[in-house]
Design brief:
There is one protein chain. The protein is 48% helix and 16% strand. The strands form 2 sheets. It has a 7-stranded mixed sheet with strand order 3-2-1-4-5-6-9, with helices on both faces. Strand 1, helix 1 and strand 2 form a beta-alpha-beta unit. The chain has 8 helices and 9 strands. With 249 residues, it is α/β, with parallel strands linked by helices.
């Protein structure tokens, strides 16, 4: 039986990039990805791509920074499938500027998407996971959840903040059999990352493919309570050892 047979995962920012790769991998392993994205046309396109391969998928338009939109998307998912087993809080943006020149509006926008979005989607999904006494929440962190880079004050702040939110959710959710983890990759080859890299090149920065990160995220979401053992594929293992990908439990 497929590892995620029949399980439903809401994946934010899943119309492209890392989120899309997670959705594709989840569907390939028997799960039903809910493609939650601000761009409904792109979300529909990803859902059609998955369905063309014989799996189920559902596209919903969600602005993760707006509570009403998040609640509506979660309720629509419950109405269609009657369950939410996994939340992958992945939606995010990157804005690269020095602190002295960073517009406050840009600061608030980035934190709203990364942190408000993580909080709102978590809150909306938890009530259903608690009722089912089962669930897994995965936050897309970053090496910047642990480290810092110049020109990325808002992004580094947001990614550090996910660690705190995750730790609280893990403690509060434990009695309901709901797990929470942050996956912290290094540089992953996405359009947003390439733009940021051109603005702030680092000759020592290594990169991982989106499918590698998707595999790691799905491995974590499939883990059970207790001691967690990750058994990644050989390529992923090499990248983890080299510092490209990591996990914060």
């Amino acid at each position: 039986m497929p590892r995620f047979g029949g399980k439903v995962a809401i994946i934010t920012g899943a119309a492209s990039g890392i989120g899309k790769e997670i959705a594709l991998r989840f569907a390939a392993e028997g799960g039903i990805p809910v493609i939650a994205d601000l761009n409904l046309d792109a979300a529909d396109s990803t859902a059609r791509e998955i369905k063309a391969k014989g799996s189920d998928a559902f596209a919903i338009a969600v602005n993760v920074a707006e509570e009403e939109a998040v609640e509506k998307g979660v309720l629509n998912t419950m109405a269609k499938y009657g369950r939410i087993d996994i939340l992958v809080s992945n939606a995010g943006i990157q804005i690269v500027k020095p602190v002295v020149d960073f517009p406050f509006a840009d600061w608030k926008r980035l934190l709203a998407i990364h942190l408000d979005g993580a909080f709102l989607t978590t809150k909306a999904c938890l009530k259903h996971m608690y009722a089912a006494r089962s669930g897994s929440i995965i936050y897309t962190g970053s090496v910047h959840s642990k480290e810092a880079s110049v020109l990325k004050a808002a992004y580094v702040t947001a990614k550090h903040g996910l660690l705190g939110l995750c730790r609280v959710v893990a403690k509060e959710g434990a009695e309901y059999n709901v797990r929470a983890n942050v996956v912290c990759p290094g540089f992953v080859r996405t359009r947003e990352a390439r733009v940021a890299r051109r603005s702030n090149p680092d000759p020592h920065e290594r990169s991982a493919s989106r499918d590698c990160f998707a595999a790691l995220a799905m491995t974590v979401s499939g883990c059970q309570f207790g001691h967690t053992k990750l058994r990644p594929a050989a390529r992923m293992a090499r990248q983890i050892r080299s510092g490209v990908a990591g996990i914060s439990m």
